[in-house]
Amino acid sequence: MELHVTLCSKKDLDTLVQLGKRTFIEAFKEKNNPDDFNEYLETAFNREVYSRELEERLTSYFFIYKSAVIVGYFKVNQGESQTDIKDDNAMELERIYVLRKFQGLGIGKWILNQVMEMARAKNKRYLWLGVWEYNGKAIEFYLRHGFVKFGTHPYYIGKDKQTDWLMKCEL
């Protein structure tokens, strides 16, 4: 399987917004209240939010390609750009999504390995993330790859207060 990763820039803004919405819809639309879900989509996946984040020095988005086709993306945060921990010794994997039609091919594992290598190259001690407590498939995936639960935090989809497990993997 020929995969490669590229850093996103402002020129990728529209593609990133579309991919972000599409993958989030594929993953979570059926499991959420439609009104809350649509409100969240409009506030979290819009050009202004992504444009601002692409300018953040400690936040990076990456596309994953299988040959010349974008199959997914991920977002990492460091330092003050992390959503909770804000530890200079850590890197946060805030988003990791693979388009539904490319799932089951080992792409998620490949992405996770790439992110771990990025974190190691930046001398981080651990990688952490938040995952919805009802996303059993993702939780199992992270547990298989050395992550452990170390806490929780609230995550809002519209007005619906949900709980994310905080998980980390020592590097």
UniProtKB/TrEMBL annotation:
Superkingdom of the organism of origin: Bacteria
Residue span(s) of domain N-acetyltransferase: 3-171
InterPro entries for this protein: Acyl_CoA_acyltransferase, GNAT_dom, N-term/lysine_N-AcTrnsfr
Coiled-coil regions listed in the entry: none
Keywords: Acyltransferase, Transferase
Entry-linked Gene3D superfamilies: 3.40.630.30
CDD domains: NAT_SF
Protein name, as recorded: GNAT family N-acetyltransferase
Record lineage: Bacteria, Pseudomonadati, Bacteroidota, Flavobacteriia, Flavobacteriales
